[in-house]
Amino acid sequence: MGYVVALRQASIPIGVLMGVFWLHESAPAPKRCGVVLLLLGLVMISL
């Protein structure tokens, strides 16, 4: 069950990265911090 949740939540940082690199959206510090925290949570779930 944990892998399903991690895979579903992985779309959020992927979407943010696509927006920043492809659409040239801004990436202020709170957005970067949120993405990093989300990625750390995904890593913890997958362990």
TrEMBL record:
Organism in which the protein naturally occurs: Endozoicomonas euniceicola
Protein name per its UniProtKB record: EamA domain-containing protein
